[in-house]
Amino acid sequence: MTHESHRVQMARSLGRLLKGFQSLTSLPAMRAQRSHPSACVPCRTTVALPSLFSFKPRDFSLPNSSWSSEMMRLYDHYNSQCEVEAERGETRGGPWQRLPSYNRSLKYATGGVYLSKIIQSRARLFTRNIREPGAAFEYVLFVNKEEQRCVCIFQAGHLLEGPPGHVHGGAIATMIDNVTGTHATVLSGPVMTANLNINYRSPVPLGSTVLIESSLDTKEGRKTFISCKVTSTDGSKLHTEATALFLSINVSHLLRGG
Ligand SMILES: CCCCCCCC/C=C\CCCCCCCC(=O)SCCNC(=O)CCNC(=O)[C@H](O)C(C)(C)COP(=O)(O)OP(=O)(O)OC[C@H]1O[C@@H](n2cnc3c(N)ncnc32)[C@H](O)[C@@H]1OP(=O)(O)O
Prior knowledge:
This protein has 258 residues and is α+β, with helices and mostly antiparallel strands. 25% of the residues lie in helices and 26% in strands. It has one domain (3-255): Roll (Thiol Ester Dehydrase, Chain A), CATH 3.10.129.10. The protein has helices at 3-23, 69-79, 112-120, 169-188, 252-255; strands at 84-85, 91-92, 96-99, 137-144, 149-156, 191-200, 209-220, 223-232, 238-248. The strands form 2 sheets. It has a 7-stranded antiparallel beta sheet with strand order 3-4-5-7-8-9-6. Strands 1-2 form a two-stranded antiparallel ribbon. A hairpin with a 5-residue loop joins β1 (84-85) and β2. α1 (3-23) packs across α4 (169-188). Bound molecules: ligand 3VV. Ligand 3VV is lined by residues 18, 21, 105, 125, 177-178, 181-182, 185, 190, 192-195, 223, 245, 247, 249, 253, 258. InterPro entries: HotDog_dom_sf, THEM4/THEM5_acyl-CoA_thioest, Thioestr_dom. Belongs to the THEM4/THEM5 thioesterase family.
């Protein structure tokens, strides 16, 4: 296989992946697969995966034993407001949809097994590359398409320390980029971060659970502008504020190395 045909195949694979990711929010239902004993929401169903996934990879956005009771309470709160499948495949109620989260992109895309062997065998999504539950980034994202906003429930583990007892600013920036970037992808398809502006207002205690909320400011041509804030779970404390600009890209942009 020539270098050029590798690139073409990878472009196709990435294109399918991004399309699949975006179409997730328009699937009949983003059903909750629950694995935590204390979770008690009415919809006990399985996760809907896009057809491009050839087998079931681990969905990191589902509860695990490291999740605090506050993390579980908020997960249940949003999960219980998620779209559920009613009879005959129709959907019922629920303004929110939970976004599943995997640690390898290409491996699970059609053709990705081949590509992953050559190019991507060791690549992992930055925020999902530590196996020990609770050690680093524990989070789940919910999207509200009508209100064009996202909510992420984030529990910061002990490996994310910056100032003693508090979360590293780079880890907070990573999560803001992750949440706003995912939100922009849902709204606009393939994008890359062009600008990220962050004001750190108060430190985030290590081990705590916080809310990261993002909302669409405006879309202008290829540009998607998003605002974001990190707060305590009761909303009383503002930890961080950010604005971000995402530019829509053609996937070939990634293959050219930018
Ligand atoms: C990739 C898709 C991933 C999707 C995954 C789906 C599966 C989901 C799984 C898991 C979710 C995880 C989600 C994580 C998300 C993380 C996202 C990141 O961290 S991305 C890495 C950091 N970003 C970079 O490395 C970009 C580097 N920069 C570039 O590549 C280029 O500069 C780029 C693409 C941003 C723009 O380049 P140009 O050539 O396409 O566009 P030009 O012509 O320069 O600009 C177009 C317009 O935008 C303005 N512009 C460009 N940069 C600007 C800036 N920094 N500030 C303000 N305006 C800017 C320009 O002034 C111009 O505006 P006028 O059309 O004239 O009005």
